[in-house]
């Protein structure tokens, strides 16, 4: 039996997991990142978490031919460095070199969204497709593109594929990256919450005030969707706008990349067909040559948070 070991470094938690050859997680540990700590301490904890996950699976470290690490921010796969991690305050951090002080042997590093994409590609419902575009809708809009044969597209110096920062509206809404009009500024859950609050503020009768006990701080990505399903017209406007921006974003990416399948991740994909159905309609209208080539399959990502750990663990299986 072959086993793989992966670590998913996040701003809140460090998760490590052992993955078996059926690509299921058989042991997992999670501990707080405590991000104010020095770089070296956090990396030492990542190695500790990996060892503990191995132990919980009843395995020695020599059962693994590598360790895979997924980390937030742009990664240079050649140097094993993280260019910057805003969330942790790291710049040009030599993560792989530091990690090897604790666990010797091959270590692979990739961006966390790329790892999630790769996990879905290898182990999720997307595994039957040769190329996959993965978009995750959360605080931001992240994603990964897995090319035919199982290679993560990482671009020059690992800066490739940041779909959230492709321009959707020139000089549009302010984005977290400092730019304007990015996909993330319209299709993230943060953007959905911003729009929900704006429209609610202008409509004191909206059902959503009642749903949130009159507190804007209780507005979530679900608020407008729930209100719309209960017949709230203003909630429906926010949902329709959100879906239009999301649909246009996905169509543009599909016209550029033409993957076999598109996967949508993040909590909002639990809206299922209520979200994906209208996006498919927009794709039909806007995809190049839509009348001659069938559109890519559009579906919900299936692995949730496990995708990041599974993808990191399986980095050694990436086609080169
Ligand atoms: Zn941006």
Describe the model.
With 320 residues, the protein is α/β, with parallel strands linked by helices. It is built from 10 helices and 13 strands. The strands form 3 sheets. It has a 5-stranded mixed beta sheet with strand order 3-2-1-4-8, sandwiched between helices. The protein has a 5-stranded mixed beta sheet with strand order 11-10-9-12-13, with helices on both faces. A 3-stranded antiparallel beta sheet has the order 5-6-7. Helix 3 (112-123) crosses helix 10 and helix 5 (189-201) runs antiparallel to helix 8. The longest helix has 25 residues, at 233-257.
What hetero molecules are bound to the protein chains?
zinc ion
Helix-strand string: EEEHEEEEHEHEEEHHHHHEHEH
What's the tally of helices? 10
Unreliable spans? none
Which range best describes the helical content: under 10%, 10-25%, 25-40%, 40-55%, 55-70% or over 70%?
25-40%
What is the overall shape?
globular
Ends apart, CA distance between termini: 24 Å
- Give average pLDDT, whole number: 95
Structural class comes to alpha/beta
Kindly state the number of beta strands: 13
The share of residues in extended strands comes to 15-25%
Across the major sheet, the strand order is 3-2-1-4-8
């Amino acid at each position: 039996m072959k086993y793989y070991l992966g670590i998913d470094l996040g701003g809140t938690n460090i998760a490590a997991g052992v993955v078996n050859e059926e690509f299921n997680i058989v042991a997992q540990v999670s501990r707080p990142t405590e991000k104010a700590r020095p770089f070296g301490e956090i990396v030492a904890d990542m190695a500790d978490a990996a060892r503990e996950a191995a132990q919980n699976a009843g395995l020695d470290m020599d059962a693994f031919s590598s360790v895979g690490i997924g980390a937030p921010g742009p990664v240079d796969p050649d140097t094993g460095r993280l260019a910057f991690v805003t969330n942790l305050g790291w710049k040009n951090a030599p993560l792989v070199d530091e990690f090897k002080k604790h666990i010797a042997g091959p270590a692979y590093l990739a961006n966390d969204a790329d790892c999630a994409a790769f996990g879905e590609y290898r182990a999720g419902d997307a595994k039957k497709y040769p190329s996959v575009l993965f978009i995750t809708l959360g605080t931001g809009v992240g994603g990964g593109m897995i090319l035919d044969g199982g290679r993560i597209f990482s671009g020059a110096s690992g800066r490739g594929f940041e779909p959230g920062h492709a321009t959707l509206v020139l000089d549009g809404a302010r984005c977290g990256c400092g730019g304007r009009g990015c996909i993330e500024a319209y299709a993230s859950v943060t953007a959905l919450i911003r729009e929900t609050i704006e429209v609610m503020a202008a409509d004191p009768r909206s059902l959503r005030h009642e749903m949130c006990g009159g507190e804007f701080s209780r507005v979530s990505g679900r608020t407008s969707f729930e209100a719309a399903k209960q017949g709230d017209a203003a909630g429906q406007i926010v949902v329709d706008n959100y879906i239009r921006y999301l649909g246009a974003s996905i169509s543009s990416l599909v016209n550029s990349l033409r993957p076999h399948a598109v996967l949508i991740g993040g909590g909002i994909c639990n809206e299922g067909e209520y979200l994906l159905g209208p996006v498919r309609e927009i794709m039909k209208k806007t995809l190049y040559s839509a009348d001659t080539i069938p559109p890519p399959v559009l579906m919900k990502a299936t692995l949730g948070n496990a995708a990041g750990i599974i993808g990191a663990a399986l980095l050694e299986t990436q086609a080169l």
